């Protein structure tokens, strides 16, 4: 801690810095390594002979004539149909984020402005729903979805992801709405606005930071989901994460493991850039839920 | 806000949650009392010059008719719950009679699929949760002592393991730890054991998955603790410094009590998340030696021949009961606070 009175010893300072450096290495190196390896051929990145090949690119030079190769990427995106998976991911993510923000802001606003006791119980119920493992919910969906013949298509998955996402979005937005003073919308109500008008024209304009945070978390949930998308979508409609898993399953094909590596990099890169851009919002979102709730 | 307005504002999200979280839980409950149909068999008489033989074959037609008529399966009551793949009541009492020592008995029981998975899930929770709290707290303390100017990028680096999906995170680690990866190969060199690999031993697999869990969840604890540290009041800390309190004493008696509510929050969230551990098992392809409750459900649902809805549902219900037991202390505390506040 940076306390003016506290003169820290040099030994402690060195220890602290070393610890942070080691931790950052542990946290980041796996990603850097995978990124580096995705430009090699399989015999180098998963070398049976010598792990140093991954750095010296021994086999990559023989097979492709260069130190780096984009083969894994081009094959995964065309032959492996990763373009289809990423298109599906974009569709799912856009819809999930939009719908859950729409439902979430309405519901959380009502919860934050209600003084009734049931509002408290709704929040508790949402907390319990948040704790449900997704796979148990999926085991509840599969049979009715088969019977109704709505299994395998994107809209079903979108609705399911929106619903699964609601408890967290509600809690997050609820704590944000609580920070907006009540007087603001009350004065609008006195001036003759309806509740919806007050919500739309007075509250929403000052709520953007909260909405962005909630949107980011919905996005991360929809983008990262494996359990729901793997079991509720058919092969044709798979999003990126189940697609990556399907590359692993067919190990006999020589190229597939490298497809998975390049697909992992392709799927992770946009997410990292997004988080880098919105880092402040991610952290404020994680902490509002915790510190206040 | 009037009740009627509240109703209309809350209707969409409430409907979504009831339809896709509430009802599925009920649907799981109902499914758990049914089991898939047995195959209908018929006797076929085959005659040749040397006599007639009667053989039993599966009547495909009748089976599919039965399946179409009652797709939910046959009613099984609590049968699925007590069968060999779940609570295995019969097997356990058998083991109790057969085995001589307690250790042997426990050995036998933990070889049953459900108990095996339960054991792994609990071990995972037990090792990952405290370590996540500890590591997250230490990282938060250290980062908090670093100059403000370079903290931004450091925080970004720290939260990377948390923002990737568990499947990707475990794959990225697996590719390094596997025998053909950079860490695995070097470990083989160091130990001088060319056959050393993740898959070769159960203990090694468990340790790897637990390390993965700590790696993946610590950033979350870090972020929450880091934010809480920003709210620690400075005056008592300064007073303690003047009074000659050591660094450890200050953390123990001022910082920790202040962030205590946040610690319980993080412990609870990470306990809930760890209890549903599932994706790393797929990422590390560790199905052979480590199975969790969630993985058992997944395995039933992707079954090749016929999806075992009943079996998956029964495991799901027991997982939900497990979650309820974990949540109970918090709910009781909230209820008490709510009553006193009233």
The strand line-up of the biggest sheet of chain B is 1-4
Percent helix range of chain A: over 70%
CATH homologous superfamily annotation of the largest domain in chain A: MetI-like
Radius of gyration computed on alpha carbons of chain B: 27 Å
List strands and helices in order, with pairings.
The complex is a heterodimer of chains A (293) and B (342).
Chain A: H1 10-37, H2 42-45, H3 53-56, H4 58-64, H5 71-78, H6 82-113, H7 117-131, H8 134-148, H9 154-179, H10 182-190, H11 195-203, H12 208-224, H13 227-232, H14 240-249, H15 256-277, H16 279-291
Helix pairs in contact in A: 1-15, 5-15, 6-9, 6-12, 7-9, 9-12, 9-16, 10-11, 12-16, 14-15
Chain B: H1 3-31, E1 34-35, E2 41-48, E3 51-58, H2 60-69, E4 74-75, H3 79-82, H4 89-98, H5 102-109, H6 113-144, H7 151-163, H8 166-177, H9 182-191, H10 202-230, H11 234-242, H12 247-275, H13 279-283, H14 293-301, H15 309-341
Helix pairs in contact in B: 1-15, 6-10, 6-12, 7-10, 10-12, 11-12, 12-15, 14-15
Walk me through what this model shows.
- The complex is a heterodimer of chains A (about 290) and B (about 350).
- Chain A has about 290 residues and is mainly α.
- Chain A has 2 domains: about 60 residues, no CATH class; about 220 residues, Orthogonal Bundle (MetI-like fold), CATH 1.10.3720.10.
- Chain A is globular.
- In chain A, about 45% of the residues are buried.
- The N terminus of chain A is likely disordered.
- The longest helix of chain B is centred in the C-terminal third of the chain and has 33 residues.
- Chain B is globular.
- With about 350 residues, chain B is mainly alpha-helical.
- Chain B has a domain of about 190 residues: Orthogonal Bundle (MetI-like fold), CATH 1.10.3720.10.
- In chain B, the strands form 2 sheets. Chain B has a two-stranded antiparallel sheet. Chain B has a two-stranded antiparallel ribbon with strand order 2-3.
């Amino acid at each position: 801690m940076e306390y003016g009175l506290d003169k820290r010893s040099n030994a402690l300072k060195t220890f602290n810095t070393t610890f942070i450096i080691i931790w950052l290495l542990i946290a980041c190196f796996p990603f850097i390594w995978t990124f580096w390896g995705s430009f090699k051929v399989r015999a180098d990145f998963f070398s049976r002979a010598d792990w140093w090949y991954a750095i010296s690119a021994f086999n990559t030079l023989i097979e492709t004539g260069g130190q780096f190769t984009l083969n894994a990427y081009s094959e995964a995106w065309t032959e492996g149909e990763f373009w289809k998976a990423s298109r599906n991911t974009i569709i799912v993510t856009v819809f999930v984020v939009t719908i859950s923000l729409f439902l979430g802001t309405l519901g959380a606003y009502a919860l934050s402005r209600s003084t009734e006791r049931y509002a408290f119980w709704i929040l508790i119920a949402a907390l319990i729903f948040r704790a449900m493992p997704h796979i148990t919910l999926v085991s509840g969906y599969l049979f009715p979805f088969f019977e109704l013949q709505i299994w395998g298509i994107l809209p079903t998955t979108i609705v399911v992801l929106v619903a699964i996402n609601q408890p967290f979005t509600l809690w997050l937005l609820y704590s944000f709405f609580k920070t907006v003073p009540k007087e603001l919308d009350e004065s609008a109500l006195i001036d003759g606005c309806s509740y919806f008008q007050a919500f739309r024209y007075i509250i929403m304009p000052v709520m953007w930071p909260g909405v962005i945070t909630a949107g980011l978390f919905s996005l991360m949930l929809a983008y990262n989901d494996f359990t729901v998308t793997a079991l509720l979508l058919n092969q044709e409609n798979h999003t990126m994460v189940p697609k990556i898993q399907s590359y692993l399953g067919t190990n006999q094909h020589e190229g597939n493991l490298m497809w998975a590596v390049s697909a992992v990099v392709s799927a992770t890169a946009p997410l990292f850039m997004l988080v880098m851009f919105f880092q402040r919002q991610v952290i404020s979102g994680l902490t509002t839920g915790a510190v206040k709730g | 806000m009037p009740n009627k307005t509240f109703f209309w504002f809350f209707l969409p999200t409430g409907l979504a949650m009831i339809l896709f979280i509430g009802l599925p839980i009920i649907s799981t409950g109902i499914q758990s009392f049914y089991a898939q149909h047995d195959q209908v068999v018929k006797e076929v008489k085959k005659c040749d010059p040397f006599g007639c033989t009667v053989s039993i074959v599966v009547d495909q037609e009748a089976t599919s008719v039965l399946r179409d008529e009652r797709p939910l399966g046959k009613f099984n009551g609590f049968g699925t719950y007590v069968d060999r793949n779940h609570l295995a009541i019969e097997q356990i009492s058998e083991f109790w009679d057969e085995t001589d020592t307690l250790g042997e008995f426990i050995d036998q029981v933990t070889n049953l699929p459900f108990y095996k998975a339960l054991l792994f899930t609990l071990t995972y929770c037990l090792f990952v949760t405290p370590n996540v709290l500890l590591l997250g707290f230490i990282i938060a303390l250290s980062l908090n002592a670093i100059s403000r100017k370079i903290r931004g990028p450091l925080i970004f680096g720290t939260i990377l393991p948390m923002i990737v999906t568990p499947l990707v995170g475990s794959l990225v680690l697996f590719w390094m730890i596997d025998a053909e990866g950079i860490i695995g190969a070097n470990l083989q060199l160091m130990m001088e054991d060319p056959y050393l690999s993740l898959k070769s031993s159960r203990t090694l697999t468990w340790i790897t998955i637990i390390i993965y869990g700590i790696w993946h969840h610590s950033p979350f604890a870090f972020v929450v603790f880091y934010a809480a540290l920003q709210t620690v009041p400075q005056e008592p800390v300064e007073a303690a410094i003047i009074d000659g309190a050591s660094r450890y004493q200050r953390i123990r008696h001022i910082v920790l009590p202040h962030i205590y509510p946040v610690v319980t929050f993080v412990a609870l969230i990470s306990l809930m998340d760890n209890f549903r551990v599932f994706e790393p098992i797929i990422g590390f392809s560790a199905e052979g030696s480590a199975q969790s409750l969630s993985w058992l459900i997944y395995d039933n649902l992707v079954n090749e021949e016929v999806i075992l809805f009943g079996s998956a549902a029964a495991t799901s219900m027991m997982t939900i009961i497990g979650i309820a037991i974990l949540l109970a202390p918090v709910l009781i505390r909230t209820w008490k606070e709510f009553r006193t506040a009233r």
